[in-house]
Amino acid sequence: MDNAVFTQLNLDDDCDPGHLIPLLQSIQFHEGYISEQAVRQIAHLLKISENHIYGVASFYSQFRFQKPGKHHLKVCLGTACHVQGGAQLAQEVEKQLHLRSGETTPDGAIDYEEVACLGCCAQAAVVEIDGAIYAKMTTDRLIKKLNELRSQQAVLSEAENAPLSAPASA
Ligand code: FES
């Protein structure tokens, strides 16, 4: 993590350990996750162990330890969604993408989070992809959406790796 975030947070040298949660929240907000480097810097600043920081941060689901992906996938496991098959959707994500909540695919394309409620329980089971809500989700529809995401990502990756101009013809 860049020192600029710490500077922006306006911390002084005698910052006390009571600042840990607000500090983690600010880093999560600015960076999108809590990196190993950030943990080291916090440990140094607050004079506490890295293990203590991981222990505290992992208690709260709001903190991520992996860099977010380009696409954001959330599966709701709240009561209404659970009753309508939310757990099966979560299992399908694990099967298709090999992801557990809080993880990102190795290529950085998709991050995944299991949440307690997305605020539209009457539409259960609910999945959110890149901020859009998908109501009454089934495993078949989810597989289709994941395939769409993967093919979009493949096109983007191809475009990113394409040469800027065509090679000159002979
Ligand atoms: S429980 Fe899933 S949207 Fe509320």
Largest beta-sheet details: 4 strands, mixed
**What name goes with the CATH superfamily of the largest domain?**
Glutaredoxin
When the domains are counted, the total is: 2
Shape: globular
CATH classification class of the largest domain: Alpha Beta
Secondary-structure class: alpha+beta
Query: In CATH terms, what is the fold-level topology of the largest domain?
Result: Glutaredoxin
Give helix and strand order, one letter per element, not per position. Answer: HHHHEHHEEEH
Task: Please supply descriptive tags for the structure shown above.
170 residues; alpha+beta; Glutaredoxin; 2 domains; 4-stranded mixed sheet; 7 helices; globular; binds FE2/S2 (inorganic) cluster
What would a concise description of this structure say?
By secondary structure, the chain is α+β, with helices and mostly antiparallel strands.
What topology does this entry show?
Elements: H1 3-8, H2 20-31, H3 36-46, H4 50-59, E1 71-76, H5 79-83, H6 86-97, E2 110-115, E3 127-129, E4 132-134, H7 139-161
Parallel strand pairs: 1-2
Antiparallel strand pairs: 1-3, 3-4
Helix pairs in contact: 6-7
The chain binds FE2/S2 (inorganic) cluster.
FE2/S2 (inorganic) cluster binds next to α5.
Task: Kindly describe this structure.
With 170 residues, this protein is of the alpha+beta class. The protein has two domains: 4-59, no CATH class; 71-160, Glutaredoxin. It has seven helices and four strands. Strands 2-1-3-4 form a four-stranded mixed beta sheet, with helices on one face. FE2/S2 (inorganic) cluster (FES) is lined by residues 76, 78-81, 117-121, 124, 126.
